[in-house]
Write a structure and sequence with these properties.
By secondary structure, the chain is mainly alpha-helical. Helix content is 76%, strand content 0%. It has helices at 2-13, 16-37, 44-55, 68-116, 123-134.
Length: 140
């Protein structure tokens, strides 16, 4: 749960939540419009499939827009999709960077706590602490 909260904070801080929501709205609107505009797009499911292969730039070619408005909608969704995919990559990298930083801070806090309580540590704990420092495995 803590990780999901962290991921949501990164998404919200970067402003990606608005971009993702906007993309879903554009995608839904386009999927509703395309069956009415394009003869090869028979239903909502076909529209979603076509838009998916368009915004991921896979482009199988099994469904092709032939009307001007259908092509314009496809271009908008494809460009928006490229932005969302790139943004998602950045958010994921930011998420894992934040996790690593949190782990490092936690390990450092634990080490400082152990160092503050040095006189109270047993011989075994002192040896383990010395070994961690010697091997530079302070950050786990």
């Amino acid at each position: 749960m803590k990780r999901l909260r962290l991921l949501w904070n990164i998404v919200r801080t970067t402003g990606a939540d608005g971009v993702f929501t906007g993309f879903l709205v554009v995608l839904g609107a386009a999927a509703l419009l395309l069956p009415r505009l394009e003869p090869d797009v028979e239903d909502f499911g076909d529209a979603l499939w076509f838009l998916f292969v368009s915004f991921t730039t896979i482009g199988y070619g099994d469904i092709v827009p032939v009307t001007g408005l259908g092509r314009l909608i496809t271009v908008v969704v494809a460009l928006y999709g490229i932005l969302v995919v790139a943004l998602a990559t950045g958010v994921i990298v930011g998420y894992y960077s934040e996790i690593l930083r949190t782990r490092a801070n936690t390990s450092l806090d634990e080490l400082i706590s152990e160092m503050e309580n040095l006189p109270d540590l047993s011989r075994e704990e002192l040896l383990a602490l010395a070994e961690r420092i010697r091997n530079r495995h302070i950050l786990r």
